[in-house]
Amino acid sequence: MSGNKTNTPDLSLVLQQLSSAIASMSKSQDSGKQDSKLTETFVFGQVSKYDGNNVKAWINTVRSAFEACGKGDYLKREISPQEPEYIEYCRYYGLIIFTFNPNTIELVQHCKTVFQVWSYMIRFEKDTFATSVRKFTTLLKTTYNGGTLRKWSELLTARFEDLESEWVSLNESTRCVLIISLLPRPSFDRLADRLTSRDKITMKDIINAFVEEDEKNKSSSLSTKRQDSESIIKQAAKAAVQKKSFHKSSKPSSSNRSELKCTYCHRNGHSVDQCHTKFWDDGHKTKNVPQTNRPGTSATNTNTNSANRQARSVVLKCTNRLPNGNSWIIDSGCTSHATNDDSNLIHPVQKSAVFEAAGGSPIISEKMGGTIINLNNGHKLQLSNVAFGNFNSNLLSVQKLFEDGYSIIFDGESENPTVTIRKGDFVTEASRNDDGLWVLINQPVHKMFNLWHHRLGHPGKTILDRVHFNHPEVDNKLGNCHECCQNKSIASSHKLPMIYKDVGLFELLHIDLWESPTLSVSGCKYGMLIVDHYSRFCFGIPLKSKSDAAEAIIDFINFRQRRHKRVVRFIRTDCGREFVNSTLDNFCLENGIEHETTVGYAPEQNGIVERMNRTVFGTVRTLLNSANVPHYYWAETMITAICLINIWIRDDGLSPYEKFFDKKPTYNHLRTFGCVAYGHIPKGKRVTKLDPTSKRLLFLGYTKSPAMYRLLDPTDHEVYIMHDVKFVENEMYFSSDSTNQSSYHHSSDSSSSTGESLSSALVHFNSITSDNETNTSTQQSDNSLDSSDNNDISVLPSTSSQSSFLPSSSSTSIMSPSSSPSSSSTLIDQHDSDYNPDDDFSDTRSSLSFDNDEQPVQRQLSRENRGVPPIRFGFKCVNSHVIPATYAEALGMPDADKWREAIHAEIDQLQKYKVFAKVPHDDSIRPIPTKWIFTRKRTGKYKARLVACGYRQQLGVDYNDTASPTPDRSLTNIVLSWAKTCRYKVRQLDVRTAFLNAPLDEPVYVRPPPGFGGSGLLKLEKALYGLKQSPLQWYRTIANHLQSIGFVRCTTDRCLFKRNDTILLLYVDDIIVTGKSESDIDSLIDELDIKFEITDLGNVNDYLGISIVEFHDRFELSQSKYISKVLEEFNMTNCHSAKVPMSSLYEYDDNEPVDNSLPVQKLIGCLLYIANRTRPDICFAVNWLSRYMSKPTGSLFKACKQILRYLAGTIDSTLVCGELSCDLELYTDSSFGQGTTRHSTSGIFVKCGNSSLFWRSMKQRKISVSSCEAEAKALLDGYKTIVPILEIFEFIGFHVFLKFKCDNQSTIHIFKGGQMKKSRSFDIEIKKLVEIFEQTKYTIEYVETAWQLADMLTKPLSFVSFKNLLNHFNIMTNV
């Protein structure tokens, strides 16, 4: 016990000492942490931030910072998350990221640790041998050219550091030798001798010596300036004293003043010694100019006024030589830029200044302005405050260049002496001429007459002056423009204003329609203009027909309201039927838009758009005719003209573009329309190295980006969007003497009027109107649009029938009574995608002509050329029938009797089925509009059908469900193969007016169509074509009837029915029936005919566009007719065939511009239907290209056309549906990690006996990490596909044994129950499928890749491999 007591005090003391030690340690740690943070803040604040040009300085300072903080190990290795320093390591990552400027930080965004950033910058810093040579050459050229020696030494030190690499390493002694050797001699001989006399010298010694030398030079310069100023002051004081003494001594007495007479000026009252005139003349003469010999004077009297000369602040150095007028001499003694040619000045102002030349003679300047010197490297040197006067040459002031931020380096000791002028990215060099002068040559630029007038689309002088005021680089000089005189002749104007005070931006739209006498190359006949009232911003929309106007307006308003976040309150149009119709009226009613219309024959009430109409198409005419561009490019020219008009500056000093978008437009990207443009051909698109690197194209217009241009190749009508373009603005693509107007038309001996009018120059009349139109607002002048329109230019009347290109309003048309309606001839097939342009445009359109005594008549209400197929951009649509669009047009056509019979037949059919019942009009009911649809069958039969406008229906009011089942595409092959296996008969049936048999569940009311007569509404009792629920109601009706007569519906596919041995396949109103005997099928037809009108089409022949031919052991399915139609539509009928549908995997290029005018989506839709029905050989190519169809490009369109070439060569290929066997084979394959997205592609092919039942190429949803996983996913996709097919076979009573075919051994091993480490990451679905394989009797077999049929569905194959697999696809082809 005693021992314990004695030890207690010792223990407490130890505990106290321990706690104090711990506290002191914690304090020291806290202070250490605080000191380390201060150190970090200081050293990283000294790091040179990386700006893209100082990589060596950044590396040195960052390395020093990390070493100063004791973290140099961070730059040598990665710190793992398990190490205790990992948190500190992450914090230093943030510090090193902050050493980058905002514009360079993106270089290391991919680096996630300090070591990754350091390693990347070290690799980035390493120089090549060529770079080191270039940097060393630059170092040797760094001679001293003025300024302080210290700055020069700093420049040399920076270049020493930049030069350091594995190729070059300069120690301090070598650097000292280089610096001393670069000192200019003999100016610094003493300094160089003083430095070389030392035994040992360092860079620090040289810098100190340079600082001393700078101080000496500075002090001597100050003393010299002080002495000069003192001498000037003394001379001025002396002159003032002389003047004062002269005035004192020159005052004679009043008595003698009248007797004195000066012999110098011959005036009374003073003597020659007191003559003010003589004193003034003597004081203003220079010492180099002798005195004027006047009476009483001596030539030796040479008094000068030195103080007056010193008051001139600007002194110029002049030369007696007179170099080329494009030469600019760099003068270090010149204190202002000077020129002797006032045409060099931009935006000159009147400003007087007196300059003194080196000879002492004064030079007076009255003008000053800016100048742009065009250099041979493409740069432009912009100068300000350039004086114009009687100088001997153009002078560049070195002093002014320094003030403007330029650095100038003189290199006169090399073999080729140069002067380098640099400012930012601007770098140019001046050379020394034979006279020893440093000269910059102003490259002559061909000045096209009225250049900016042509570039801006021929605006008037007022527009040019306004643009020039805001953009001085735009030349506002305008001479007499013959194109404007020829194409902008107008009549006198009306002075009727239209005032809307409370209308904001995009709230009021003025709309009008213009009809062109020529179809555009894209098939458009009309141009619709939409003008915003507030800003006068114009939109142009080419249209193929007048009936498209309402839908175009609706789409335009919906799109623009969402984009600009503005609401349209008013639209103003004329009373044409294209604007006044139920479609547009209902849209305006639903959206709260007030539709204002003009009074008949009073277009001045919509004068804003009428004047814009005249301005736009006056510009279109001018652009087309001045560039000799064919008139079928009028739609593309209209877009360009509107783009230019929107940037014309109006009388309020603003352009419509600036008002609409609240930002100023740019003009630097403008070029002359129709000029020659050479588009660069990328290296990848040139076949050999000797091919041209550019293509001669026609400049067509602009894009949304100022850097991109729309260029046209008239030889194949291809439009390119390029940025790398060289323009030749003084050369038009089409010459004036070329036959460009007729070269694309086939002429004949009898085409004296048509062909001659197209090839001759267009005649433009003053605005010609009908008798009822008294020079309305189509002739109004608009000073805010074009001042040249005020000039009424008369044109001699035409003496021959010539084509006119006049914009006509939507209410009038310029057509002679004798002109025949346009007709369409069969279009000539093309040979390839680069087809012959001579075949695109045949001379099928009659020209509009006037005789001298003829007056134009009003526009006809029915356009007889409706339905004539337009020549579309890139493809054709051929139809020999003229189809009316409305009921009125049908009754106004030459074959109106045929159409009237078709209408009566349709009405009789509707009454027969009791489709509707007449009810009184009720305001609480919202009826659905109806319309007539007319067509011509392939047999020539006239067909009219009444349809409802289902887009006006409302969900929950007049319809609920709409989804109607359709059969899977494999069912057709299964049914036909099963029939051939069982030797059953096959018949094809059609239900006439199927929808009219289906009763409706909801009350639906429609408006009576034209031709019904009476008033009130129609209540539909049966389904009508066009209603959303009509297909579903028809399916329910026929399905219930089939089940009532004993048929059983398949649960897997609800369009397949079975009764005993009879199978029925239903696709809407098309039916395929197969049974044991003809009697069984006949009895079924009789049962169906009791309720429906059934047409027995006999043996199956043409089903869903598929031609089916029956043989004793097989059916052959072909889509040759459909393929021919597609080839004809896309001008590929006579194209060169391709051996394979896809030669190499197509990859999307992000830099390639998107061209929405290309019909890529339509073409891919046609190809998908072919691939899914009868042509598995193109399945992969179409599926792969369809992934990119949302961004149509030229290369994508070209890849699609290769599939068309392959189809053209294999158009007669047929798919065989033969007899089935007991083995159902499922081939699955995949391509691992395809394309830039790295998604794999699954290929599935189902074969049974001699029949190909199903095939599919699909993109896998998830990215696979191994080929084994990709194959397993393909097997899973195949299993999901085969299960419904197995159920269908079970339903029809045909038992098969399923075999999986795979070419991946690892996948087969896993699905046979084996274990692999890589399978642990597989999806749950794949593991579930493995379990199914273990529990069922499914077998999976290995097949060699050469015989893997699904391989064709996953990747492009070579021709040999492709042909070998094609023979096993049950495709009879001629490949």
Number of strands: 41
By DSSP (H or I, 4+ residues per run), the number of helices equals: 35
Structural class: alpha+beta
Q: Main beta sheet, described? A: 6 strands, mixed
Name the helicity range.
25-40%
CATH superfamily of one domain: Ribonuclease H-like superfamily/Ribonuclease H
Per the CATH scheme, the topology name of one domain is Nucleotidyltransferase, domain 5
Shape: globular
Please tell me the overall pLDDT: 76
Strand order of the largest sheet: 6-1-10-9-8-7
Low-confidence stretches: 1-9, 246-252, 284-323, 739-880
Terminus-to-terminus distance: 112 Å
CATH architecture of one domain: 2-Layer Sandwich
CATH top level label of one domain: Alpha Beta
Task: Calculate Rg over CA atoms.
Answer: 45 Å
Instruction: Please indicate the percent range of residues in DSSP E strands (runs of 2 or more).
Output: 15-25%
Organism: Dermatophagoides pteronyssinus (European house dust mite)
Protein name: Integrase catalytic domain-containing protein
InterPro entries: DNA/RNA_pol_sf, Integrase_cat-core, PolX-like_BBD, Retrotran_Ty1/copia-like, Rev_trsase/Diguanyl_cyclase, RNaseH-like_sf, RNaseH_sf, RVT_2
Function: The aspartyl protease (PR) mediates the proteolytic cleavages of the Gag and Gag-Pol polyproteins after assembly of the VLP.
